[in-house]
Amino acid sequence: MTRHTDRLAGVAVLSTALSDASGVHVRADAVRGNDLRPDQWAAGRELIVDRPRPDAAVIVVADGAASAAAQLEAVCAEAGEAPHGPVWVLWRGWRAAAVRRVADRTGLVVHASFRCTDSPSSPVHLVREGPRQAIRWLGASARERWGWRSRFGSIANQLPGVGRYFFEGRAVLLGRPDTTLRWPGGVATGSAPAVLHLAGGPTSGRVVLTWADASGEPTVHTKVAGPAQADDLRAEFRALTVLATMGGLDGSVPRLAQWQETPGWLAITQTHLPGHAVHARAIGPRGRAAAGQNLEDLVDRWVRDLALASRSVALGEIPTTDQALPVDVASAFRDPGLSAAVLRGLVVSKERPGLVHGDLWRGNVVRAPDGASIGVMDWESGRVGHALFDLLTWVVTELSDDVAVGPAVARALTRGGDGAVTARRVRTLLSALDQELEPDDVEALVLAQLVLIALEGGPAAATTETRRREWLAAVEHLWQSWLRDGSPWRPRTDGWVRS
């Protein structure tokens, strides 16, 4: 249930943003294995966990509609009246009549209805019922994941038998008839977003609202977060502000539309880039190879364009990648030669610093409709650093693909095979940036960027201390293989030190 906790935390944060509720009351005693730990959800206001108050927002989670209805009725009875704030009710299954009857009896009205694409206690996506654009959006986004089933996306809302391919639960947002809900970043007053993405893991307490227009295309999206994620959203705000001053990126980055900040929550609204997510690989070995090669070329070109565009803008307010390094790099490795190489690489990397995305993997990349370019989303890890940071993050993440970090790093940067391809991509990028370096300097630069990725947590999987240690160990093994067999840039049997 831990993953349910951090995703539902986004609902708690959103509840405080929707109204002036004094707190959030959580009622989830019917969820199996309940371990919601609501004390960790606080979004800058009091969080109520014992007896509900009329001026509080309410979140009810249940395994079925009957249980959800009973809990909703109990909350209203204990408070003595219907809550003044927003009331979220999430449950597993399809039937909604019981919940709606209780809402009518207690004087609550439905402000928005959603379908859950995962269990109601872990709603990865909530897709709004009714508006055609929400279902069309889901059908388009699901095409690569579900294949032929996605052709039913446009009617999934009307036919439960088809909808079961996509949805496993229901969610309704209730409130008094006179309750005014203020959706952060809303495209129209009182409107509800087409899709809610509830974050999990290290981004607990965050929700992304996707707004769609009448054509069915998502136009903007808003990230809402509590104080725990404030630094991430501020970093994205700074990065998007800098990107707005750059030329040469040809619409491949979002545009900042709005920034909102209150004591309890923050929200950033930006354009939603057109295109299709590249989460899924092409089906079949031939299709996968062709699509992957084309995508690699697009990513390499985009990384180069970002680095070149960064040269003409001020990056003073953006943190640097090497701020993640320990004070004494030597303490991270047993081999002093490796420590010296990393420090040397940092010096080389600072000669041409630029803005880097910081988390370049498939989940943050969309392919443009023409297939000839990509767009890159999610800039909350934006940093000042060397362009190789993004390139190597992409390469190693692509090669890992649910495999341990060590083999992925070895495949990417040892001699032959994938290592030779990566070496060619590195040389091409450095040449485009007018950085003709000696092999020793290239090796030092690559090692430094790998260490930064390990400590910064570039790939999403490297966010725990265990994974960071695994990354650093993989870098050390890579260094030993270079000493023994030579690197992709130069066969070598001697040590690192050059006269």
Q: Could you walk me through the main structural features you see in this protein, from its secondary elements to its overall organization?
A:
This protein has 2 domains: 2-228, Rossmann fold (3-Layer(aba) Sandwich); 283-485, Alpha-Beta Complex (Aminoglycoside 3'-phosphotransferase, Chain: A, domain 2). Residues 30-45, 142-162, 280-290 and 458-462 have low confidence and may be disordered. The chain contains 13 helices and 17 strands. It has a 12-stranded mixed sheet, sandwiched between helices. It has a 3-stranded antiparallel sheet with strand order 13-15-16. 38% of the residues lie in helices and 17% in strands. The chain has 499 residues and is of the alpha+beta class. A hairpin with a 5-residue loop joins strand 9 (206-212) and strand 10. The chain is elongated, with a radius of gyration of 25 Å. Helix 8 (336-349) crosses helix 12, helix 9 crosses helix 10 and helix 10 (405-413) runs parallel beside helix 13 (465-485).
